[in-house]
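ENTRY TYPE: protein
WANTED: fold as tokens:
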Amino acid sequence: MYNLVMKDLKLGINPLFFIMPVVLGALMLVPGWLYFIVILYFCWITVPNMFGQFRAQNDLMFTTMMPVTKNDMVKARVLVIVILELLHMVAAMIFGAINLRLYPDPTYYFFGPYLGFWGLCFVMLAIFNVIFIPMYYKTAYKYGGATFAGVAGAMLFAGIAQWIGIQSSFVSDVFNGSGAHDMALQTSILIAGIVIFVALTMIAYRMAVKRFLKVELQ
């Protein structure tokens, strides 16, 4: 499985997608922006282009000729997705921390780049994964509908979460007010988001394996 992961990272993915997390992460330096968009770029740009490239390279047929199981094929691809997601998250978090230093006394209308916000971003990516990955592995070939559904789910969560953050004074205080400086609270939200991300991604992987085992490869 390690070789499958390295195949994707070295041969299957355009090197541009390893630079994009830094380039897009720099958007965190825009003061008072809707920062969910920075992470959503992964869903909007990286995923459709990456899977389009796999399809153009006929990667599925090539991989089936290797001495690997369908289980390993799914596991390796899910790991690649997670690696890229974490690259986007880490880069954005670093620039988010710089943002907080550059603008020490900001007024945020949307969520500010505090730790709790990153917990919400992990949940957003988890929702994308649990929709996109199982849908894609119905065929392991057609990615358009799965991408659209995954993006719609992630954007719906981000929109609802941000709307609540604006409408609810309690939520606003937790993420942008006094609660934003409560490290115990912010850390707990971040950890909860990571746990949800891991759990839903594992569910997505198991669902994908079950579906992919039913796919007849020719």
Summary: The CA atoms of residues 179 and 185 lie 7 Å apart.
